[in-house]
Amino acid sequence: MRYLEFDHITIDTQNQLLIRDGESIILAPKVYDLLIFFCKNPARIITKDELMDEVWTGTLVTENAISRTLVKVRKALGDDPKSPQFIITVPRKGYRMVTEFNANDKCQYNDQNTTEQTSINKENNNTVTPSFSSLNSTKNKQKKTLITLFSLSCALLIVTVSFYFSTQQNIEIITTKQLKPLTREIADEQHPNISPDLSQLAYTKVVSGKPSYINIENLSDHSKMSVSHPRAKLSRPVWSPTESKIAFLYQHKQVCIIFLADQKEIKNKDNWQQITECSGESWPHLVFSPDGQYLYFNDRQSKANGYQIFRVDLLNKQKDIINQPITSGQGNYAFDISPDGKRLVMLNSEFTAQTRIYTLDIAQAKLQLTAKLPYLMGAVVWHHDNMTLVHPSPHPAYELWQSNLAGEKLAVVVSNTSRVKQLSRINNKQDFTFVSYLINRDIHFKDINKDNQPMNLDNSSVMDYLPALANNSGQYAFVSKRSTTAEVYLAQLPTENNNVATSKQLTFFNTPVRLYQLLFSPDDSQLMVLADNQIVIVDIDKGEVNNLALGNRAISGISWLDQHTLLFSTIRNGDWQLMQYNIATKILTAMPNGYQGGLYDQKNQRFYFLADESNEVMILDDLIQAPQSTGLICEPGFINRQLNLTLTPNGLVCLSDVNNNIQELKYYSFADKSISPWQKLPTLFDYQINNKGVIFTQLKQSVADIMQTKSH
Question: Which family does it belong to (predicted)?
Answer without folding.
Answer: Belongs to the TolB family.
